[in-house]
Amino acid sequence: MNRNKLNHERLSGLVALVTGAAGGIGLAVCRRLAAEGARVLMTDLDGARLAAAADDLRANGAEVDTLVADLAKKGERDRLVPVALERWGRFDILVNNAAFHGERRTFLDASEEEFEQIFAVNVTATAALCRAAARAMQAQGAGAIVNIGSIQAGLPVATYAAYVASKGAIAALTRALAVELAPAGIRVNAVLPGVIATEAFKQALADGADAKRQMPMTAALLERQGEAAEVAAAVTFLASSDASFITGAALPVDGGRSISRKADPFEQSFGDRTESGIPE
């Protein structure tokens, strides 16, 4: 099966909001949703990157709009769903992709302020957007929410306690909302990426690895890093009518990493570092 062969009608006429849309997984999700017919409101904190990403998608025929927002600020995140509704008159898909990783430091050295910031972006903002989206979807009688979690919620890397805890909260929130919103016809699922070779991840490895040592790969059973487009394909499936009988699910996109017994070269090379990095 050619995973690059798209169904251009599957999401035709639907409206989506994607957070963290300026690059990496978020941009790949926007690209895939738009390629399958959705109209997409892209939001990110980085306005310049967001504008460039949107221009690239428009050049390829995508119908997208942008809104710069700091999700940690209530007033800014509260604008997002209303803007999509005003722009296109409906709201069908929410993809909560944006996340703040924080600094790599031991739990004993981590500050309460950083915990609060990580949870503000990763959990509080996700919950707020789910609430706003669900209200719009409830009026239509249908909708799909896809939260981007992480395999780290069950397979944590040391020095990322706050990030790991926030992704655990996302897993629980996904299940809770699947139960509560099902009567309104709203499905809520999660995608759990493993090591994905985004540009940010590659740069983090290049900056952190010993120049004389080969950059670490992955302990995935499929023996490679994933691609952002592969995560986007999973997100799009869960957002589409092809997943109409799926809710409360957590779909790993990790090449089998979460069930692998192989030694993790990423952990061996970077597990003892206490500086900024990009986790799984």
TrEMBL record:
Transmembrane segments: none
Name of the protein this chain belongs to: Glucose 1-dehydrogenase
Domain Ketoreductase: 14-194
MF terms (GO), sorted A to Z: glucose 1-dehydrogenase [NAD(P)+] activity
Keywords, ordered alphabetically: NAD, Oxidoreductase, Plasmid
InterPro entries linked: KR_dom (IPR057326), NAD(P)-bd_dom_sf (IPR036291), Sc_DH/Rdtase_CS (IPR020904), SDR_fam (IPR002347)
Residues covered by region (Disordered): 260-280
Matching Pfam families: adh_short_C2 (PF13561)
EC number: 1.1.1.47
Broad class of enzyme this protein falls into: oxidoreductase
Family statement drawn from the similarity comment of this UniProt entry: Belongs to the short-chain dehydrogenases/reductases (SDR) family.
Bias (Basic and acidic residues): 261-280
